[in-house]
Structure formats: structure tokens, C-alpha cells
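Input sequence (368 aa), recorded before submission:
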Amino acid sequence: MKRFIGFVRKEFYHIYRDKRSLFILFGMPIAQILLFGFAITNEINKVEIAILDHAKDATTIEIINKMASSKYFSINRYLAAESQVEGVFKQGKIKAVINFEKDFGEKLIKNGQSTIQIIADATDPNTANSITNYIQSIIQQYNQSININQAGGTQVFMQTHMAFNPEIKSVFMFVPGVMTIILMLVSAMMTSISITREKELGTMEILLVSPLKPFQVVLGKVVPYILLSIINAIIIILLSIFIFKMPVQGSLLLLGAESVLFIITSLSLGILISTIAETQQTAMMISLMGLMLPVILLSGFIFPISSMPLPLQLISNTIPAKWFIIIIKGIMLKGVGIAFIWKETVILFGMTLFFMGISIYKYKIRLE
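Predicted structure, C-alpha cell format:
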């Protein structure tokens, strides 16, 4: 029995001294529960909306103030005409527009009813439904407040319009997200094991004494996978269009160019993992566990980023998938051009240069 107790004590010492085991035992569960707890939510928080007020009377101002004072909405701007609605949606920040009809307050007093139109950006159907439900709840509370001392039935009616996705098809949300996850994970995983494979097979020494410069070795690792991933992207896009009936309102050429940029970004990230990891198994674990959860939870694929705590919102900015989802939804569903997605394009390009630069630097260290 003493031998067994001694053996158990030895195992405790071994685990205590192995920092990686302690991280897996305690760090990973804590990180996951915090990540899932804060990221997985259907609630909305400070969603940016726009106001199109044709009446500009005391009644509309009162309703607007009720929306502005709630924790759910933040009024980003006031529009002057309906022709501006599509433009603000294409810019990406505004998620809904509240349209008050002309003579809103006067009609409410004289006729006992007025109409508000809720226009929501339905490229993300779940968020659009949540936004309209919260707005309807605020309007219903207003209806109750104005009728509390009245025998009559004064009523504010609501009309809902789902922009870019009138039928609220969930496939419009899942196809861009799934396409992003597949391209990122497959691309990063393929390249993450490339340099580690050389080390495990013992062929790294050949590369170390070859006349190739570090950047040539890194680019040489990436180029074959770029071509294979482009074929993969073409297959995914064709399946999305012909099988899932995903529309492409914008330029196919621009969609292809942005997809290639994202593929290169993902491959560069994979090369970075490859230069850090010591074994193929470690590289694959980092690619799967280190990328899959952030891509699914913090990219805006399923859960709205605006509803997450500020630290998670800041972390999401470092995830390439977030920017590519914005790009692909803008091109396929909104029909935007480069003028509306140039910022996201520049960010992906900058990430690519950063990942490649760090990879070349890490590889150069190995040469010394």
C-alpha cells in the first residue's frame, strides 16, 4: 500500500511540474467556460440603429428617446430619405432602421393609430429577429403607457421588412460562416504540419544547409497549398450557389479575389503555427483547438459580436474570420463593391504580412 501511495504522490509531483498538464487541467476549462458563458447569447446589447423620422413631432421624439435610453440600442444616425437606407446597411454598422410615417403624432391623435416600419439587416437572420422583437416590445410598452388612462384604443402598428433576406433563410447566415470555417481550418491545418513534418522526418537539416533563403522556404511551403485551397474555395462557392441557392449580388471576380486573400492569410497563420510547434501532433492540436473555438464563437458567425463584453470584442478583431465573414456577406448578399469593404481587405492583407513576417523571423532563428 505504501508503494501505491508513493506512486500516486510521484504522479502528483509529475503533474505539478508539468506546466502544460496544469494548463490543460485548469486553464482550458476556465477559458472555455468564460468564453462560452459570455459569447453564447441571443441577447442584443447596444446594437446600432438609424432613425428615419418623417414626422419630427413630440410623439416620435418620445419613442426615439425610449429606444435610445434602453440598453439594447444605440442610435448611430438620423436619415433624411428612404434612399439612404440601403447605403447605411451596406456600410455594415447599422443593423436596423426605424421609419416613422409622415404626420405620425397627428394621425395617432385623430385616427387613433399610426404606423412604424422596422427595416432590419437580415443577412444575419437570428440577430434581425432579435432586433425586431426588442423594438416591438418597446413599442408595445409605449402603447400600454398611452392607453393606461384612456378607454379608447390608440395603437401604434408595426410593419417589419427584412432587407437582403425577405424570407429569413438561415442558409444565408450559415453558408458564409461554414465557408469561412472550412477555408481557415483546412488551410491552416495543411500548412501547420509542413515544417514540423520536415523536422520529424529528419529532412530539416537539408533545408538548413540549402542555398534557399528563409522567405523562399516559407513561400515555397505556401504556394502549393494556395492552389489547392483555391480549388477548394471554388467547389464551396459552386455548392453554395447551385445547391443551397445562395445569391451572389456582387462581383464574382471580387468574391474570388477576396477568397484568395483570405486563403493566403489562413495559410500564413498555418505556417506560423508550423514554425512554433515541435511536432505534427502539436501543430494539428493548435490548429484545431486554438482556431476552431475562436472562429466559431468570436467571428460573428453565429453570435453577434456587439452583444459580447468589450474584452471579447477586442479579441475578435484579431481573428481573420471575422473580417472575411463581413466581406463575403457584403459581396454575396448586399452586392457591395470594394468601396464598402476596403477596410476589411486592408486588415486581412496586414494580417497576412504580419503572420508571414513572424514566420520568416522564427525560421531565421532556427538557422542560427
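Checked by second reader. The CA atoms of residues 298 and 315 lie 8 Å apart.
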